[in-house]
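So, can you check what follows?
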Amino acid sequence: MQDKRFTLDTNILVYAVDRDAGDRHGTAIDLVDKAVQQDCILTLQALSEFFYAVTRKGKMPSVDAAEQVRDWQTLFPVVAAQPDVLSRAFSAVEDHGLAFWDAMLWATAKTAGVTVLLSEDFQDGRDLQGVRFRNPFAGDQPFWS
């Protein structure tokens, strides 16, 4: 659907490279492959968290993790939080009970025009100011139609 803009949370990126993640690994690879064909952006925050998570957990050497991030930067537009995003994140923490880093991700995505945030870390199906949270690991929901 043309009016949907997606973003992928860190957990999807991590599962895409984590061969020990079982079914989540295959699902995440499929999501990333399909996201390339969609209006999908990545946040600098998600890419940074990916690098930190996979290197800290020993899933990838830092040189390979950095190369993976560079590949995704080539495949997807990347957006970074601007100063006004911080105020929006503070409000989301206070008014909607989001954890701070989740609020930063949501606020950055919202500012970039994202309408669907794919993550297992948010309440599946919840809509927050025009951004719908979807857990791609919860059932067989068609995100791309």
Q: What stands out?
A: Strands lie at 6-8, 40-43, 78-79, 116-118, 127-128, 131-134. The chain has a mean pLDDT of 91.
